[in-house]
Amino acid sequence: MGLQIGDACRETIKELASVVLHRFNLGQENNVSIKEAREISASALNFSRSYLNDEIQELIGISESSGVSLNDLMLLNCRNMFSVSQEGCTAILVSDERSDNGYSIAGQNWDNDPEMDKYSVVLTRRPVSEPSNITWTQPGLSAYMGFNSAGTAVCMNALNGGSTLKGIPWYFIVRKLLKTAGFFQAIDNVRRMPRAITANAAIITSDGPINIELTPESVEYLEPKNGLIVHTNHCLHPKFKRNNIEFKKDIYGQSFERKDRCEEVLSKIDQIKIEDVKRALSDHEGFPTSICRHPNPDPLIGWQRSVISIIMQPITRELYISRGNPCESNYEVYQLD
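The structure assignment produced for this chain is given below.
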């Protein structure tokens, strides 16, 4: 598959690899040098080889057909190991029982660098011996938000907490989740791998929705309350709440307010439809730093916005994507055949 991805997306991968560190540094108080970034990426590649044979082989194929070096592709996949990742998300999980049609729903806004939109694609992978998957991603990344044919959908949130160079980069962990079927396989996969950063995976499995908060030291999960989980960019599990004090400065903007507002909007609805999730993700309470985020006066990240909004219903194999703020853009529907 790597050869096919590199061939189909050659120019996009080349351009993305050439700008990714510059774009990352725009959200940082202190720039990360190319030397530092390459040292981290090389260390992560060396550490990860024994855990990621299939994933590394795919990157080698992408490298061969795109002309971008394996080390530069690894740099793409390690970008949130360079420093605190300045990106925000509001994620929603709705259980079968709470959904109007009896099928679980996952959705989120991705608040980030709007320049990333032009490097993004909807990518379908059909491995021979694993579930197929469809993701919204930047080609060259191992995985991003999406779902598989076994009924597992993955949304992601940047999360405040520690990190280590002796761990698997986050996007590879997401790829491993997209190979799983059921809650126990998903949680076991995450726990068995050493983890480089603190992050959140809001997932649907064939056993229902579950939210996984992970750090280099531990993995914990949260179950739905009244058929609903909302997660933003701070820790919710009691074991990790100390991170909200220790790493307070790393919490992406208005995380507490976005979570409370999203829960307020959806808690009033008995049977939640996809249209209800769209409206929640388009909400402007607290504008411009609302769930639907717009440019604002923040000196560090005020230029960021909701780059995409994504909604998934894996049982129907439907992926809804709005490019740009969902208040301004229609959702296009993609199908995993």
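Interim note for the steering committee: The radius of gyration is 18 Å. Residues 83-335 form a domain with the Penicillin V Acylase; Chain A fold (CATH 3.60.60.10).
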